[in-house]
Amino acid sequence: MTLRTVALTLTLLLALGTGGITAQDKVGTVHFATSCSATVQQDFERAVAMLHSFWFSASTSAFTAVAQSDPACGIAHWGVAMNLLGNPFGWPPSPKALADGWAAVERARTAGAKTQRERDYIAAIETFYKDADKIDHRTRALAYRQAMEQLAAHYPEDREASVFYALALNATALPTDKTYADQLKAAAILEKVFAAEPQHPGVAHYLIHSYDYPPIAEKGLTAARRYASIAPAAPHALHMPSHIFTRRGYWGESIEANRASINAISSHFDQLHALDYLAYAYLQTAQDAAAKRVVDQVSELPKVNVEHFVTAFALATIPSRYALERGRWADAAKLELFGKEFPWGRFPQSEAQLVFARGLGAARGGDVTSARRDVERLGALRDTLAASKVGYWAEQVDIQRQVASAWVARAEGRTEEALALLRAAADREDATEKHPVTPGPIAPARELLAEMLLEANEPAQALREFEASMRVEPNRFRGLYGAARAADLSGDRTKARTYYSTLLSLGEKGDTERPELRQAKAFLGK
């Protein structure tokens, strides 16, 4: 029996065990009043529920069917336009999606809407698509957010308006705001709705996004542990809990969530985001053979042409993580981009992930010439992103360039300069947040700083940096091992014992005995 068959069988058994779940219940329950025909109302609400779980293809098909059944149901075309936004945490949408979204808005206006509330929903999404070729993405996104704020205020009894406004708050929050003001504002709205509508898929989903940050991730555990049961038919609902599990370092739960999501998705390319999270979790638990199976699965994919950087991102990060998390610098230095015909030029932020891993591997392996070439490529990718006004990713890629440069300096014997560069890069990384598309940086800058300090025979300083890194990226294998070794070398055997013990627990299900685990056993056996 295949894993997919097992997953489908379990889903069926769960449904039977709850007394016969309806099709509506499998994607959660929403209440969205419309002036459309009563015969399509249930289908419309099911389409909204699927939209809330980012099940865009299924939701679009459902909204389209509603519009065909009731040609006067203009709000159904609003639903199509909402789906064409795609994942707002991976914005901006592609040019094709923007063009198709505007066409859907025009169909909504042509079909008409019988209530002012429905017309207001259509007008709100229109602000996002209108003049997309003339007005920059963030300006339009903020205009949509303001329109949803006004709609939610005008119709306080309409919980859907509040939920979509909360999503807009999360999607437009600045990654440099360490107060998380927008996210916490969204969470306050969503928590109230969750209390009233505990089977609402969007509320559980967007609460996870609201709390997907190290200092507040604990608040997201309730939503994370409930979302999959609210919408078990929606593949993204099965994956999303792993965002919070990753922030907390709960690798077993992350593995279960992503395996369930992958088994529920028919398209290999739709699986890639979950595969990135899965490979990351496997590597933290020393399940290297399992991680290698993920790498092999990705490498065997057929040719693909995609509209968005998320797929390209996973194609670059999965093999990069497999090399770097295991400290295989020579393997990292030989990394090559997936598929010669793949349009990497359209995805500079994605290409940068593999280029960074390759440059880091080359520098740490002593191949300065190759490392310098990758540093230069990172600079060019940064410039491309800056010219395209993709400011967040331009900053992240420049941080990667600075980290790689630091290791080049270290390889050339310029240790003080290297440490200064790497410390500055770590401070820059701390000032922003990781993107929701990724479980974490390819290699955390502060953890790398700690590793360099260990190499420079500064174990006490290294320990402080490892511990600072672990407060942001908890339960990482390399972080725990580094902290244990630094504690031992600095004479703090109590801390060393604690960290080595935690490392062994982390590797209990490991399918490869890494040398770090052998060292932990040797230390604890003394």
What does this structure look like?
The chain is an all-alpha fold. It folds into 3 domains: 28-247, Tetratricopeptide repeat domain (Serine Threonine Protein Phosphatase 5, Tetratricopeptide repeat, Alpha Horseshoe); 267-443, Serine Threonine Protein Phosphatase 5, Tetratricopeptide repeat; 444-526, Tetratricopeptide repeat domain (Serine Threonine Protein Phosphatase 5, Tetratricopeptide repeat, Alpha Horseshoe). The protein is built from 27 helices and no strands. The radius of gyration is 24 Å and the shape is globular. The model is unreliable at 1-22 (pLDDT under 50).
End-to-end separation in angstroms reads: 45 Å
Order of helices and strands: HHHHHHHHHHHHHHHHHHHHHHHHHHH
Question: What's the mean pLDDT score?
Answer: 92
Q: Describe the main β-sheet briefly.
A: none
Calculate Rg over CA atoms: 24 Å
Number of helices: 27
Stretches where pLDDT is under 50 for at least 5 consecutive residues are 1-22
Basic shape: globular
Q: What is the domain total for the residues?
A: 3
CATH architectural grouping of the largest domain: Alpha Horseshoe
Query: Remind me, CATH topology of the largest domain?
Result: Serine Threonine Protein Phosphatase 5, Tetratricopeptide repeat
Highest-level CATH class of the largest domain: Mainly Alpha
Would you identify the CATH H-level superfamily of the largest domain?
Answer: Tetratricopeptide repeat domain
Proportion of strand residues = under 5%
